[in-house]
Amino acid sequence: MQDHTQLDTGYFQPDACDIGAFREIIRRRTEASDAPTATQVQKNVPVYDMRSLEPLLQQPDGRKRLMSEWARILLRGAGAVVLQNAFQQTEVIDRATDIYEKIIAAERLENGGGADHFAASGANDRIWNSLQKLCEKSPETCLSYFANVPIAAICEAWLGPGFQMTAQVNVVHPGGAAQEAHRDYHLGFQTTEQSLSYPAHVHALSPVLTLQGAIAHCDMPVESGPTKLLPHSQLYAAGYAAFRRPDFRACFEENCVQLPLRKGDALFFNPALFHAAGANETEDIHRMANLLQISSAFGRAMETVDRSALCKRVYPAAVAMQADGRLAPSQISAAIACLAEGYPFPTNLDRDPPSGGLAPETQAGFFARALREGMDAPTFSRHLDQMDTKRRA
């Protein structure tokens, strides 16, 4: 469990992050008693062979016991688990791989391939929303692929029922460089300045809203660059403020571990765990993983609101009231925060890719920019329509 005394600061600052405290946390060892159902512990990470353990998931008591163990490890243990043989029959992996390779080739011809959050376009191949695209190409393959009891169980173990599955295929070619250490969605996809604007208790909340996973679509020896992990690093409460600091990234490189994966294995980890894709140092392995990002059902509002319609209606008034001084800049900002969509996700990342940062421009950001630039109402309205079109599935 995170040291919640660290949350008393109200807001985190990178300069206040303590590398000594971080090093003390990552010295922790994973004991066999921490993961009693695991087949083994490799490099501090519990490994579960689902060939022998999947029958346990068919028993209500056994399922709850195993799920509780996984949740405990993700929350206050190593922060990561490997499910060996999550796909005991890998024919469906091969069928999906064949479909994904055709999608990659088609998208490369159409638009040069998908941009990435953490690597330049062309450094690897990315399929955004690989879940829906697989379903569109072959409903039977999609159904068979996600008819996976261990994967559904670990998603529910971390997020509870009603979770929302998304997926993105990533292929790293021979010679592909490693990523820098980072934490993941939500706060990991914010700039440093943006993440620091969230209070400390939100930094503690963010990781339990998302589960990160990766399904190996080929054998991944260490030299092919499977994900580098720093066990227990999710326990450092200020990690979202710290992970871009050079000393924290150097500490990660000194202490991270990599576990080889076989086709059909799955890795799952707490999004607050310091991690990074490794360098592909092979000459012939095109490392393919289907990256799963599973979200809590609680990450949604109670009512549906047409925020584009709201923005179109109020924009002329905002222009007039800003011009004649009836509303101060701070008041305009407050109104935009309440009326416009201030978060860039979910979106269609094929049409609305991260450009010049980690995420597309938000509706609220555009509203403020339009006021600064003196945009007229018809142009504002047309641009909002264009943004909406880009975001649609």
Structure, described:
There is one protein chain. The chain is α+β, with helices and mostly antiparallel strands and 393 residues long. The chain folds into 2 domains: 4-295, Jelly Rolls (Sandwich); 307-391, no CATH class. The protein is 41% helix and 13% strand. An 8-stranded mixed β-sheet has the order 1-2-3-8-6-10-5-4. Strands 7-9 form a two-stranded antiparallel sheet. A hairpin with a 2-residue loop joins strand 1 (40-42) and strand 2 (45-49).
Give the integer mean of the pLDDT values. 92
CATH architectural grouping of the largest domain: Sandwich
Task: Indicate how many domains the architecture comprises.
Answer: 2
- The tally of helices reads 15
Radius of gyration: 22 Å
Helix content: 40-55%
Largest sheet: 8 strands, mixed
What is the distance, rounded to the nearest whole angstrom, between the alpha carbons of the first and last residues? 37 Å
- Could you spell the SSE succession in H and E letters? HEEHHEHEHHHEHHEEHHEEEHHHH
CATH homologous superfamily grouping of the largest domain: q2cbj1_9rhob like domain
Report the sheet-strand fraction: 5-15%
Number of strands: 10
